[in-house]
Amino acid sequence: MIEPSRSEPALEASGANSFIPPREVEDAEERVSEVLSHLASGLVILGADQSISSWNAQAERITGYTFQQVNDLGLAQIFEPAEIMQHILRKVQDDIPTLSEYLHLRRADGTQVPIAVQCSPQRHMGRTECQIVVAFRELGPLQEQLRRNDHLMMLGRLASSLSHEIRNPLNSIFLHADVLEEELHQPSPDNLELVLESLTEIKREISRVDDLVQDYLSLARLSTLAREPEQLGAVVEEFALEMADQMAERNVTIEFEGLEQLGQAALHRNTFRRVLLNLVQNAMDAMPQGGTVTFRGRREASQLYLDVQDTGTGIPEDQLPLLFTPFYSTKTEGTGLGLHVVQEIMAAHEGRIAVASELGVGAVFTITLPPVGLDNTSPIA
């Protein structure tokens, strides 16, 4: 047994100047306890079937759900987007741990808070079943500031990528401009078709550059959004009617269901219209032979839900979690920014976006927003 060194004096108060009044000690201890209670993580252990076997006191404090309540709901359902949480849990079941993922937690009282989630697989010796350990914690003001800093860094990286993405359409524009210049110097009636093709290509590439720039500007302006109460259903109908001619040209019809149920939401109208535009453009691209876009509204508890549903080709399940990644696109000519912009705009509106799809049937993107009204007031930034 190793004895402690006797040359090291015991720690003790030395003199009157080291005395701290008991009340100040108690206050300091209370402050430390409060800080530690907020830093502590909620811990959950899931079985192989994703049923919850352990739910600690911090998890209950953070979420407001009891063990029985969260087991009845299913853990993934209290996180937003639930589809991303389900994807994370499936990865961990395949022995792929995750670093911190930033999601939103929907508390038992209906409020939402930003949250960091980390998941790890756990296997007991001699057993093939994999348990999942989930740790999550609220993001305080400091963490939110760090996330804002991350947003600025992301904009810098996107700007670099954007310059590369813009070069491709610009090169095409210059090429077709050279073709037009040559035709003007040596005009020929036989080459009229070639001239028209070049003009069409130039217009298409200019439109693509404009989409890239507008998407980037939408991201850059998110930190200064000033939102006002708007009738969500009316905003959607107004936008859809403006798009009606363009959609009709591509044999796409519009249907509305339940928009009158939505009521008010706090919106930055122009930025939110960018969400609708990107979703409708994706829907039309998924229906090259035509189809139907349905705007469906519903209100449940303390949330407003708006579905934008198409009857297109659908999206493979393994691609769903990647759709909101910057510059990831399932289309050969897609910018890869559209859905990422949608996700960021929704976060700036204290909302979220989720997607579900079935191959050959179509896809539905669901927008969720907190309502604003006499009976359910949401703060407006």
Protein described:
This protein has helices at residues 22-39, 57-63, 67-73, 82-93, 141-185, 192-220, 232-249, 269-285, 338-348, and strands at residues 42-46, 52-55, 79-80, 101-106, 112-123, 130-138, 228-231, 252-257, 264-267, 291-300, 303-310, 352-358, 362-369, 371-372. By secondary structure, the chain is of the alpha+beta class. The protein folds into 3 domains: 22-139, PAS domain (Beta-Lactamase), CATH 3.30.450; 144-220, Orthogonal Bundle (Helix Hairpins), CATH 1.10.287; 226-372, Histidine kinase-like ATPase, C-terminal domain (Heat Shock Protein 90). It has 9 helices and 14 strands. Strands 2-1-6-5-4-3 form a 6-stranded antiparallel β-sheet. It starts with 21 loop residues before the first helix and ends in a 9-residue tail after the last strand. Helix 5 (141-185) runs antiparallel to helix 6, helix 7 packs parallel to helix 8 (269-285) and helix 8 runs antiparallel to helix 9.
Notable traits:
alpha+beta; Beta-Lactamase; 3 domains; 6-stranded antiparallel β-sheet; 5-stranded mixed β-sheet; 14 strands; disordered N terminus; disordered C terminus
List the helices and strands and how they pair.
Elements: H1 22-39, E1 42-46, E2 52-55, H2 57-63, H3 67-73, E3 79-80, H4 82-93, E4 101-106, E5 112-123, E6 130-138, H5 141-185, H6 192-220, E7 228-231, H7 232-249, E8 252-257, E9 264-267, H8 269-285, E10 291-300, E11 303-310, H9 338-348, E12 352-358, E13 362-369, E14 371-372
Parallel strand pairs: 8-10
Antiparallel strand pairs: 1-2, 1-6, 3-4, 4-5, 5-6, 7-9, 9-14, 10-11, 11-13, 12-13
Helix pairs in contact: 5-6, 6-9, 7-8, 8-9
